[in-house]
Amino acid sequence: MLRQIGLRMLAAIGLAFAVFNSVAAAPAAREFVQAPAISNVVLSQDGRHIAALTSADGEVSNISVWRTADLSAPPAVIALNRVRVTSLFFLKKDRLLVNTIQTFDMGGGAAGRTHLSRAFVSDLEGKVFRPLLPDTGVKTDLEAFFSKVSNAVLIDTLPNDPRHVIVIDGRLDTYGDTLKVDVYSGRSERLDRASERFGNPQTDLAGEIRARGEIGFEGGKAHFAQWIKGADGRWEEHFRSGAAEREVFSIGAFTKDPNILYVLSNRGRDKVGVYEYDIRTKKIGEPVFEHKLFNATGVIQSNGAADYGEVLGFAYAGPAASTYWTDGRIAALNKSLRQALGVKTVSVDWVDPGTGEAARLPVADGADAYITQYSADMQRFIVVKTGPSQPPEYYLLNSDGGLQLLGKQRPTLDLAALGRTRLVEYAARDGLRIPAILTTPPASFGPGPYPAVVLPHGGPWSRDEMAWDPSGWPQFLASRGYAVLQPQFRGSQGWGQKLWRAGDREWGQKMQDDKDDGARWMIAQKIAEPGRIAMFGYSYGGYAALAASIRPEGIYKCAISGAGGSLSSMKRATSQNRILRELQRPTVEGLDAIEHAGEVKIPLLLYHGDRDQIVPLKDSERFVARAKAAGAPVQYFEIADMGHTFDTWTPAMAERQLVEIERFLKQDCGAGGL
Description:
It is a single chain. The chain has two domains: 3-408, 7 Propeller (Methylamine Dehydrogenase, Chain H), CATH 2.130.10; 419-667, Rossmann fold (3-Layer(aba) Sandwich), CATH 3.40.50. By secondary structure, the chain is α+β, with helices and mostly antiparallel strands. The protein has eleven helices and 38 strands. 16% of the residues lie in helices and 38% in strands. Residues 1-22 have low confidence and may be disordered. Strands 31-32-34-33-35-36-37-38 form an eight-stranded mixed β-sheet, with helices on both faces.
């Protein structure tokens, strides 16, 4: 396994390119979103077992556990009936942490119809299966309720401790305490009590709590600060910054030297780098890792007993989540496996949105391959080959170079029916460079121009990656002959400070211009056919689709909004929290689509999950009511029991979205469809 402290991102995903000479039939919607045949593949630290989520019917996922010494033998299968497993990994060599989700009704109307997430500990056969933290003993109805909804937050697996982990307590009586927990017996030891002032404890390589975050208020303004315990045992404040400054300043990793750690910071820079920090002098040293085009996101350290804590590499947010390996052994293995799996790269002309610096950016061509985990003795490795037009394939790599396929996530999906994805860039009308991900239909549809869909991401403080999209949206649309553009419009986070901050107070305005400019760029490049462009988005992207439907002189023939919400709801949500009131609320200004719902000018489809606890269901209902009252061509449907985030979706919910989207584009996107 890899120990990464900081912002964790799995190394993944490249650029897909395929040319086909024959017409490929479009795969059914279900093939894109059914439960994966295999996913979430993890390796025990001793290298003796592999666990994964598996599904035989595309609907229900179980946990399968293999012995690496005999992968041909049937795995042990752990079936769970009442909950869905969202992820798992090894806590110890024979104990799994299993994260689950299920629908849950708390009462109180729509606000109480939600989903419950809980973490459980399981052995490798499912004979032991219990909450990570045991019940403290129920005495009242309130305590009974909290026993159902409480969860523990894991902060350190203590890789070299055979029994214990460190968690933050989520139970009612001891909420917020930091505990050292025996994963076998459930017994715990309190390491630190909850505090209204401090949170987010971090441990050093010895498992001692050495850092904690503070949210403070002075002069009516909120600030963030990091407190660190020095080698002398004294706690002192470090790294204070105002909430409104939106600076990254966090601990990336502790080192073996108790006075030295690594910090992630973008202070005075457009991009985040990793720097050495001296606790005694409170001085930031020279960068130990920085990428001139992309943000550093974390430090990867060894979990092996012999070299525990040694830096193996650095994670960064490139076109896909990526790793720069500094350890020669892993770097060599990574290079050789990419050659063995046929990974190639292409160079993309690039202009950095933050600095204007031009570069030739190497991007994986087709798919990339990554080492995601390895045993402590570095004898066995988990490898993933994947890309935006190739669902993940999982391999076991041995130190002697032997590579064995463990399984394909979507083995029935015809890759010849998928589109080609590439990283592009265009200039907005004010000159700002806008990164984008472009997927064009398979070659069987000809050279274009094509009908096209602009697909903005949610957030908006988020971004897209050159990765396989589990929603199925980009490739499903491409397989139907649509070109798909995913613009990284101003306000997107993860491409540098300039692009991110350029979206402040520009909802439905310059942020919307960037999407429209992307559509016009596709027309100029002869990718999109004029008059045959739609916008589809979910969450913030759904808001953008609503804005597109009411903008004068719009470029879109129709629009589709999933859980789109309203500007007033976002204002309200960011005003009710004292931190968000300074951090994000000042950036949320512009067009409130609901207030202009009567001005819808193009066919519009809206949908929403009825258990959405992030974007209120009533926002879509209000928009539809106002638009229909004005005689606008609006359609609407709800999906029962669906929440906002992807982990709340069943395959049937995801399939329903794809089917309805395809129907609307073909039949109701204006005369003749899209």
